[in-house]
Amino acid sequence: MLSISHSLTGAFIATKLPHPLLYVPLIFASHYLEDWIPHWDVGTGLSTGKRKKKTAILLELVELGIAFSLVYAFWQAGSSTLNFNAWMGASVGLLPDFMEAPRNFLPWEPGILKVFNNIHGLFHHSTLNIAFGLAPQVIVVGMIYFLR
Number of structural domains, the chain? Predict the structure, then answer.
């Protein structure tokens, strides 16, 4: 899934539950559940050579900017106090992908991350069909917008 979907899902869950001990495990689980759904993301094609690493990194940086802008717009705009849970949830929602970044973009994978990355790989289902791969994500973002 796109970082947009993962971050908004994480922020949504964190703002609906009262404590990180409750929402952090659920956000992790939601990340894997969302990745289980066939999807398109900026890293699709990296393993097959259809997308270059530099292109994926640049697209990801743009996408992260959009994701954090939406978290701000949905939960922070108009408030003078920091919505800690929303930002924590958004960050935790992205964590499995960040843990996979060294393996995807560097020739390096710390041993502790290998276990998590292997589990992540079991759940990850990408598709090269952009329309089919973006449709579930548009639905997720729309539902979060209306339910928040």
Answer: 1
